[in-house]
Fold:
Amino acid sequence: MTKKDYELIADVISHTKSHYITNNEPVRQKDDLFLATLEVLADELAERLQIDNPRFDFERFMTACGFELSQ
Structure:
């Protein structure tokens, strides 16, 4: 896969996330669950992309997907 592919995937995840957020706050409780599921999906995908390409930047991908990594 190329950088362009990674950017496309992250953009789709980020765009999907934005549909479920109003003023940076989840709208309903089910949206909290959806957002958590979306984050797990992005995380699992990033882990597998990193296996595919050792130079893959996990943190950059997650940020591009719209998720902050906790320290």
About this structure: The mean pLDDT is 86. The two ends are 29 Å apart (CA to CA). The chain has one domain: 3-65.
